[in-house]
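--- STAGE predict ---
source: upstream dedup step, 1 unique chain passed
mode: sequence only
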Amino acid sequence: MGVRPPADDGEEPAAVEFGIAAVDARLDEVDVSFPATRADLLEELDGDVPYDGRGRTMRLADALERTDRREFDSERELLDALHPVFEERRGSPMSLLDRVKALFSF
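--- STAGE serialize ---
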């Protein structure tokens, strides 16, 4: 999914990618072949992934663990497995730390 940030300079803003769209964009930038294990994916893609338009993130390792899958036969299979993980996280209320981060730019 992607959300456009507010425009303030009259130019067309770039889309902000989050969830499986953010993972898909990262996959385009690295050399991962499928089938791929969690370890293969984390070797190339480890880090935080934004899961909503507010900028909240979660570690890709945590998202992959929540899929209960050890191997993915295709990119589509990976993204399909991650989608409910990001949706569940997106539906959760903001933690106190997330609220503080939203108030101040770190």
